[in-house]
């Protein structure tokens, strides 16, 4: 064997070892992510942050109303994963404040633990997705038992939390018009948290939320009724269908267009439903339409996989185009223009690191 070949083999062995280490780290981090989601759902992170002191597994379990044996095993993962500090002599645990700032409900839009719930949402349909790889087709919305619940929580952070201070100010005079009274439609509204918040703040305006899935619509209706709101309604409807003859002054779509069976048709329906001078406000994932531009994107492995395992497949399940969540800014702007929108602007908000915000006017 020549010397050059020996060098290449050595380099290959080193590269293989490095990749093996990366895979091992990925395995650890992926399973740690499930633990972070459990810490969120059980309230363990919230309890530990509220305690703000070193505590035993028994004390942490009692504060969280959880089974101690499960809590102790979970703490083992959190300690070895670098999330929770451990005093081996006292056998006590502590959630550092700078970690709590990213893992608790009080962190608001900075709560990463909430986002890790999407791992289980994807894993739930893994076998069905494998079948789709071989046979084509898609996995319908109803197979995702927790998607709308998790999405509603996510929306609370990146939409509802900044709705009045960051999102509405993107459109000049919009808050004032809402105060006076306008007609608003939210397509793909899910559990309706954003529309309910708007309806409470602006009683002179009229709001409609529309979604294809009945379960979140029923939840939205229950919440609106509990709030005593009379200026909002929720409909189970295909958002690609016409939205009535009276028209709307504002239509919103929060992280929903890329999931549709025919996104271009939905955008055309939105354009037709807007009154002259009306505004379309669209939130969608921040990425490029070109894979090469996304290689260094901090979130793109996650975005491509959640597209594979939810966004793209729910569209394909309806015999749709399967646009996918990483359709990208370039294609989004083009499709808005093709649908007849004018004055399209793309904005990014500090509290919402994963999305673009598109503001368009009716043509």
TrEMBL record:
Return the protein name. Type 12 methyltransferase
Task: Enumerate the spans annotated as S-adenosylmethionine-dependent methyltransferase Rv2258c-like winged HTH domain.
Answer: 30-105
The record's listing under Pfam families reads: Methyltransf_31 (PF13847), WHD_Rv2258c (PF21320)
Q: Which GO terms describe its biological process?
A: methylation
Which InterPro entries does the UniProt entry name for this protein? Methyltranfer_dom, SAM-binding_MTase, SAM-dependent_MTases_sf, WHD_Rv2258c
> CDD domains from the xrefs?
AdoMet_MTases
Traced from the root, the source organism's taxonomic lineage reads: Bacteria, Pseudomonadati, Planctomycetota, Planctomycetia, Pirellulales
Which GO molecular function annotation, any one, does this entry have?
A: methyltransferase activity
Q: Which UniProt keywords apply?
A: Methyltransferase, Transferase
Q: Which organism is it from?
A: Rhodopirellula sallentina SM41
Q: Give every Methyltransferase domain span.
A: 179-295
Organism superkingdom? Bacteria
Does the keyword Methyltransferase feature in the UniProt annotation? yes
Q: Which Gene3D superfamilies match?
A: Vaccinia Virus protein VP39 (3.40.50.150)
The answer, when asked if Transferase is one of the entry's keywords, is: yes
